Amino acid sequence: MTRMRDRSQHAQRPGEGSISLQRGFSLVELMVVVAIAAILASVAMPAYVNYINRARQSEAITALMNAKMDQEVFWEERAVGTLHRYAGTIGCLPSFVNSANTSCLRDCSSCPQTSGVVGSYTVQVQSASTNSYQIIAFRKIYAAAPTDVVRISSTLDVPVVVNENALKFSIFRLLFQ
């Protein structure tokens, strides 16, 4: 019995004199962390991409509002007698002319510039006549998504988004379609 007492008195405490010390993380702990990170990324990534797409779309909306003002100025200033008309090409609008090519502002009838680029959107005059016009801005976000189109016309006060689903990012559509 004395031997048993001796052993119980000299029992090892955790961490004292033990041969193998546990260091690092177990595989289960690492898998839990990876799973949590994957879940957070699957929620955060589409939200971030949608946020960026909406921010870029605001550039197109600003460009269309500038084009609307330019069209009204063009209609008023370029009247031939009592005949008013809207600009038929985007190059005739001051907001879309670069400083190197101002010939379109002087002679709009022979302007070759049919589209302008604002950020990642292409802007075009879709139709123009003596009493109306329609201007569109469009962008292909990624291959599986429909084209994002924003339009404004002489009868609209604000631009209209034609396809609202074009901005919504889907990992499924990106990977499998």
Name the beta content range. Answer: 15-25%
Please tally the β strands and state the result. 5
Q: What's the arrangement of strands in the largest beta sheet? A: 1-2-3-4-5
Q: List the domain count as a whole number.
A: 1
What summary fits the major beta sheet? Answer: 5 strands, antiparallel
Model regions low in confidence, pLDDT < 50 over at least 5 residues? none
Structural class: alpha+beta
Compute the separation of the termini in Å: 77 Å
Please outline the helices and strands.
Layout: H1 2-9, H2 27-77, H3 103-106, E1 115-118, E2 121-128, E3 133-139, E4 148-153, E5 160-161, H4 171-176
Antiparallel strand pairs: 1-2, 2-3, 3-4, 4-5
Explained architecture:
With 177 residues, this protein is an alpha+beta fold. The chain has one domain. It has 4 helices and 5 strands. The protein has helices spanning 2-9, 27-77, 103-106, 171-176; strands at 115-118, 121-128, 133-139, 148-153, 160-161. The N and C termini lie far apart (77 Å).
What's the gist of this structure?
With 177 residues, this protein is α+β, with helices and mostly antiparallel strands. Helices cover 39% and strands 15% of the residues.
Name a few traits of the molecule.
177 residues; alpha+beta; 39% helix
